[in-house]
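@channel sequence for tomorrow's demo:
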Amino acid sequence: MLKPTPKERLTAHPAVVLLLFLAVLTASELGRILLASAASFLIPHSANRSVQLLISLFATSATVGVVLLYCLAAERRSLTSLGLNRRGALSEYALGLLGGLVLFGTAVLICGATDTLTVAREDAPLPWGMLLLFFLGYLIQGMSEELLCRSYLMVSLSRGLPLWACAMLNALLFSLIHLGNPGVSFIALVNIFLFGLFASFLTLRRGSIWMVGGLHSMWNFSQGNLFGISVSGIAGSPSLLRTELTAGEWQGLLNGSAFGLEGGLAVTAVLLIACCIVVVMPTKKTEIPSSNSELPS
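structure tokens (generated this afternoon):
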């Protein structure tokens, strides 16, 4: 179980942790905006939507930098309590990439079986270079959100709250961060909360951030660049396949309509099953025992 050591400067008061989190989140957003603005200044204004999305993905490296700088310098956190264990990192990350593809692919299969989407090959030549850049961009973006919400916030809260409450609270804030996304709906926010809850449980079970970081990144890359579906309401990236979401009231409830599959009940079903599986998953034996209450089992 991830656990801060006595030498680390973490407050035990949840309200203070949340205020500090808001400060770190604000600094991260400012850094991301500055990086994106600087990159946009160097690129012609005629750059297409795909290039703009790429810039925004790579700009999330500011979040990685701000979180690591604050945690390592201000709170004197160890890499272990951030979930950045070196042992088994590569295999955990690879399993996470596979898991992200399987989970999102399952949601696509559910929608396909209910005739709420159709998938076809793209007719245009595939921009392999752009696809590779998007893959790298999502590796950064997925890990940035996991470092912020799971490595930093959840573990910081664990000094003053039981682990189940830390998982619930960071998942709620993770969902609220997406309030401004295009086409967001109540179901979309519920699904993002469920993903945050699943990511929290998985991080605690594995004792590191590597698996969930890879899973998060591949989930997003699969949506946008394998299937050509909006990623949390954001569209416009090149993809291997072309997916058409069936229009209609009940169809939209399943496929999420403009927000993408994350706004539909197919993803709700997948994430509920994933949460149930990870709750009964055995805790990795190499983890450090925690003095806080354990994850429900």
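heads up for whoever presents: Confidence is low (pLDDT under 50) at residues 286-297.
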